[in-house]
C-alpha cells in the first residue's frame, strides 16, 4: 500500500495473492472514504462490497499508464515496490520466514524519510527517538539505576542530543 499525500507505505507478506487476502488488508488498514487507485484486475470490482464508501478508480494498463479521464495511475505504488525489490536484492538472499521483517524495516525507514545511504547516524537517532516514544522512561528510575560514573542531571535534561568531537571530554555536573 502507498499513501500519496504522505508518501507512506505498508507491505504485507501473504500466503496467497487473492481477493480475500487483499480485501482483508484493505478493510483493516484503509480508512473509509479513501480513494483507491488500482489496475483492472476483476476482483478489485468487489471493493464496493466492503461497505466503507471507498472511491475506487482504475487504470487499464493494456490501454495506457494513466487513465485519460480520471488521471488514475498506479505509478506511485509501482515505484515504491521497485525500491523494495532493489533493497531486497542488496540483502542477497532472504528466507521467507524473515521477509516480513525486511519489509517492515524498509517501511519504517521509508516512512521516517531516513536517508540511510547518506548517514547511519540519522538512522540510529531515529531508532532511539522511536524507542523513546514507544517506551517512555521514568527519569527518576533511570537516575537511580545509572552507574555512578555517569553522574547526569536528568531532571534538567531536556532530551536534546549533544554533539561531541572525537577526543573531546564532556564536563560532568556534580550534585
UniProtKB/TrEMBL annotation:
Taxonomic superkingdom: Eukaryota
Domain ISXO2-like transposase per the UniProt entry, residue ranges: 1-111
Signal peptide stretch: none
Matching InterPro entries: IS1016-like_transposase (IPR053164), Tnp_ISXO2-like (IPR024445)
Listed name of the protein: ISXO2-like transposase domain-containing protein
Organism encoding this protein: Brachionus calyciflorus
